[in-house]
Amino acid sequence: MVKRIVPALVSFLIVACGDDKECKLDDPESCSDNLVCEKVRGQEQAMCFAPMQVEGKVFDLASGAAVANAEVTALDANGAPVSGVAVSGTDGRYSLRIPTERSDDKGTPVPARLTLRAGARNYQPFPSGLRVALPIDTAAAASSGEEEPWVFASAQTDVGLIGLPTTEQGRPAVSGTVELATGRSALVVVEGNGRAYSAVADTSGKWKVFNVEPGGGYRAQAYVKGSNYTAADFAVQSGAETTGVAIRRAGDSNATLSGSVQLVAGANGAGTSVVMVVESTFNEALIRGEVPPGLRSPEPGIAPTVTGAFSITGVPDGKYVVLAAFENDGNVRDPDPNISGTQISRLTVANGTPSLSPAFKVTGAIQMVGPGAGEASEAVTGTPKFSWKPYSSAKSYELRVFDSQGTKVWENLTVSPDLRNSAGDVELPYGGPALTPGLIYQWRATAKGNAGNPISNTEELRGLFSVQ
């Protein structure tokens, strides 16, 4: 007997399978050329839909000119890659396809929070130095019609890059692969000639770092939560990209870093967070560096909640700097060097064992008023004026301004708490050399107590500004 297939079912099969092919998540050819196979929330059967894309432009932050051949990738809230790599065109524009769960059989993408990374020849990588990648929310993605891509584009998807000094331009790139287990992500750090370069491998395990100084003695290492890797040694030749640098998995890592945080007077009682930074990427002036995906307590994507003991599991062997209260949570590491628990903590993990258990004291941050009191960089005109709320028991303040790579461009170490504006906030105008329009700077204030000892700082990730 011949069974009849009702028209509605035929229509479903065409949408779900794409030209009568079975939709398979691990087979990009199981849908027609302009569609992708993706999961549907609450359904077992994946379906073929128009792709979800993040679109934007890569440009020179100082001149506004388009940057061609820049490579852009997207990371999730855990710092893991969720996409391949998009390359910008001659107009600087890129289109990055983002694998996305769908909320219904019409293909509506489930909103996601992502951050972008970008690199290009002759430019500082983004994020790096002062600059951090702010999360973008794809909830506003829209499609112009049936089988047309879902597109998210906004000012946040445009990436401005800062040019390298002339002496560092024209250097080659280095690229390779990391042997990754399914669902894992890797931070790759290339070390040599006293420098460290970093990249996050994409979903296929491919990675690339730009602008590497030619020479021998380079080593590439991967940092993956739960795994150890054998570093790859290589040399960099002038004039041509070094390719094929393969980093192989060496086995599991079961190391657990344990420590404690003490919230002292003035701290935000909601808690803080602790992260592990690869030591060779750590910038002393900026007090920041590269965090391998997942090396955070609490787990990535969770608001800061550490108020006492903490632990970070699956730490790979390596050398690290451990930072507490690094994020914008209203807290900072107590800066007074005369008491315990205030120093930056460095440790080594070897054969699955950390060399120490760090303990931190955390206090409340000085509250910024501006510029850059929010998470994004703020554009200012004329001579910047830096202002902040008076800090309890502060007898004086220090103020410093840094450029994007952590070079101090100006400081005033004797700021009187009586320098108030009409709102009652402490205020000090910039008094250093001319600032370059379009580039990113950061100001930081430190409160000092009766004995001249530091008692608090502004938060490490705030205070970013540029001069128009």
Please tell me about this protein's structure.
By secondary structure, this protein is an all-beta fold. Among the domains are: 171-252, Immunoglobulin-like; 255-364, Immunoglobulin-like (Sandwich), CATH 2.60.40; 368-467, Immunoglobulin-like, CATH 2.60.40.4070. It is 2% helix and 40% strand. It contains one helix and 37 strands. The chain has one helix at residues 7-17, and strands spanning 36-38, 47-49, 52-60, 71-75, 86-87, 93-97, 113-119, 136-137, 142-143, 150-152, 159-161, 174-178, 187-192, 195-200, 206-209, 215-223, 227-230, 232-236, 242-252, 255-263, 274-278, 296-297, 309-315, 318-324, 331-333, 345-350, 353-354, 359-364, 368-370, 378-380, 385-388, 396-403, 408-415, 426-429, 441-448, 454-457, 464-467. The strands form nine sheets. Strands 30, 32, 33, 35, 36 and 37 form a six-stranded mixed beta sheet that branches. The chain starts with 6 loop residues before the first helix and ends with a strand. Mean pLDDT is 91; it is low at 1-20.
